[in-house]
Predict the 3D structure of the following.
Amino acid sequence: MGIAMESVVVELMQPADLMEAAVVLSRAFAYRPVSRALSEKRRLDRERRLTAVHRLMLGRLPGQTLVARKGQRIVGAMRIVQWPQCQISPRQGLLMLPLMLGIKRGASLHWLMVRYVWWRHDPRQSHWHIDPLGVEPDLQGRGIGSQLLGRFCELADEASLAGYLETDTPENIRLYQRFGFLATGKASIMGSTDWFMWRSATEGNRPAHNCISG
Ligand SMILES: CC(C)(COP(=O)(O)OP(=O)(O)OC[C@H]1O[C@@H](n2cnc3c(N)ncnc32)[C@H](O)[C@@H]1OP(=O)(O)O)[C@@H](O)C(=O)NCCC(=O)NCCS
């Protein structure tokens, strides 16, 4: 028997939703396989620090956030930022560094490097940038991320804007490819690999090659 899909309502985040959306995102990232080896205490600490980071991203940095609601509960969130405000600049990165310290040994340096590489690779042409996207861990794989991405694509198409994001797993690449994103490049950053993915708004701004299929 297949996994039941969840039907959610996707809408713009309201100011009162900020904390709940930040917690959902922090849980989505704290429970990734790479963190599952951590003790419960370390994981909860990581989750708490990630909540502070996401609260800042959603509440203070530019952009808008879509939330997926199941009844009253927020179960997924996606922040969208329009270029050229989309990257965390080296200065903003340094300001956010204290929040990252202690998440995991060496994690803050890795995070700073990742952000720097993302900043350098960011396409210098108009786009909407997804950063971050996450779904409540116990509800992953039930179509919630797809419903958020579907809404993103509708909005991007209505605005005739391209989409762009960074990601780090083959599963995620598969998901984004279903929505028309193509991997246009990749970078190795201190032992991990990130792919850069682009979804064109029109045939006119499609990048030259797709490094996954070509
Ligand atoms: C990535 C994520 C947002 C996708 O949302 P979702 O609701 O789980 O995804 P959907 O159910 O709509 O789509 C399922 C597809 O997503 C991909 N996927 C990525 N991570 C997954 C996970 N933990 N569980 C299930 N599917 C996942 C797979 O391609 C899957 O397709 P498949 O079943 O054919 O392999 C969500 O799994 C998540 O929050 N993961 C942790 C944080 C993260 O990696 N965020 C994205 C950073 S770029």
